[in-house]
Amino acid sequence: MDAEVGMAAAETGMARAMTRFQVSLTSYLGTGTMSNILSTSPGVLPVNNNLVPERSFVTQNLTLMAPVYTGGRLTGTVRAAQKQEQAAIEDRREMRLQVALMVREAYFQTLLAEEMVRAAQARLDAAESLLAVTRAQFEAGKGIQASVQQVEAERAEALGMLQGARNDGARMRLELREAMGVPLDTPLTLTDRLPTPQPIP
Fold first, then answer.
1. How much is the pTM?
2. Which residues contact 64 (CB under 8 A, 6 or more apart)?
C-alpha cells in the first residue's frame, strides 16, 4: 500500500508538470548520404523534429513550451491524479486499521489460549491431588478400586485437555506472529492477562 501511494503521488506530480513551462535542450552530431528527420529521445518533452542535410552536421536546439489553453484537459488530468492519490492514501489507512485489528484480535486470542492452559493445568493439579488422596484411602482400606480408576480416568482426561490447550496456545502464538509480520521464531512475552469476569449482581 505504501508503494501504491508513492506511485499515485508520482503520477500526480507528472500531471502537474504538464501544466508548467517545459524546456528541452537537444544536440545532434551526425553524417549521412541522404537527408533525414531526427527527433528528441523518447520521453523528452517538448519534442522537436529536425530535418538534417545529406552531409555531416552539428546542431543544437533549445525548445521552450507552455500550455496556454487545453480546454480543461490538463486541469482534469491533475484532478483525476489527485483523486487517485487520495484514494490510495485512504486505502492505505484502511489497510493499517485492518492490520491493527488483526493484531489485536490475535493478541487477545493468544491471551485466551494462555488462560485455557492455566485452567487445564489447574484441573490436572486438582485431579492429581484427588488421585493421591483416593489411592491413600484405598491403600488404607477406606476406599474401593473403582474410585481409584475413576479418578485416574479424570486425570488422564485433564492431561489430554492440557496438551490440547498447549497446542492451541502454540498455534495462536504463530498466528499472532504472522499478524504482526515478524518471523515465526521470534520470542514473544505476553505481559497482560485477560481480566477475571465479574459476577453479575
1. 0.63
2. 21, 22, 23, 46
DSSP helix/strand/coil, 184: coil
Q: What angle do CA 108, 114, 116 make, to 5 degrees?
A: 105
Low-confidence residues in the chain, pLDDT < 50? none
Q: What is the pLDDT of residue 110?
A: 93
Cα 186 from Cα 9, distance rounded (Å)? 35
pLDDT of residue 94: 95
CA distance 139 to 142: 7
Identify which of 66, 64, 67 has the alpha carbon closest to the alpha carbon of residue 25. Answer: 64
Burial of 4 per CB tally in 10 Å (0-12, 13-18, 19+): middle
